Amino acid sequence: MMDKEEEKVMKKILKIFIIILGGLMIMTNLSGCDKNSRAHVESQFADLEKVYSTANVSDLFKFYPKGFEIIYTVSNFDETGKDVQYSINVSGNPIDKSIKGFIEKKAGQVFEDDITSEIVYKHNIQYSAQGWESLDSDYVMEEEAKNITFLFQSNVFSEKILSSYKLINSRYNPEIPAYHLAYYLDEGLAAKNHLDSSWRNQNENFVLSFTRNISDDRKYVQINMSTSRSLKSETIINEYREVNDNE
Predict the structure, then answer these.
(1) Strand, coil or helix: what is 186?
(2) Cα–Cα distance, 109 to 82 (Å, whole number)
(3) Which end of the chain is less enclosed by CB atoms within 10 A, N or C?
(4) In a domain, 31, yes or no
(5) Residue 138: which CATH number?
(6) What top-level branch of life does the organism fall under (predicted)?
(7) Is there a domain that residue 79 lies in?
């Protein structure tokens, strides 16, 4: 039998062992939380389904009561390299619920790796119950511009839907900080969003990507869809900032 001294020593050893074991278990649990894993990164986009899809742009105020800013670009170029690009930058004012900003049209030409472009026009616009309207007396919105719809108006995205896509990569960038997902864009989703998938560069993938910036000073979600001849990019920033065509 152990005497009292030996029993004290054994109890101390047992306590030390329990402390070490507990520490190892904590370290194991922490290391198991991989911020770059697909499951973890996709979980950061779980609330996408609240916004996608929202048919009426004005309904965004339900999800962004402090206002919002939308930066949207659609670009298409043909077999000759001729490129036409529309960019819309508007903000939703949380006080008067107005949605105003500007539209810009660019025409360009792609020569191998060289791209030239010039601004065709840049004008102030607003969103109303009738859709997009010009705020400039010298500009009447052309039909192609008036018919532009945002990605959130015609697409449904959720954590479950993202998990069904074929993944390219998932990652977390602690320096920004931001989460990023990239998937292969299938031709069905490309067609639904009027992206040209009729031709593909050699070794080039059609890509669908999601980025969530979680920085305190600028939180936003960005979605990009791209084929060899088309691009749609949408960024929704959850804060109000007045924008106009002087930018």
Answers:
(1) coil
(2) 5
(3) N
(4) no
(5) 2.50.20.40
(6) Bacteria
(7) yes
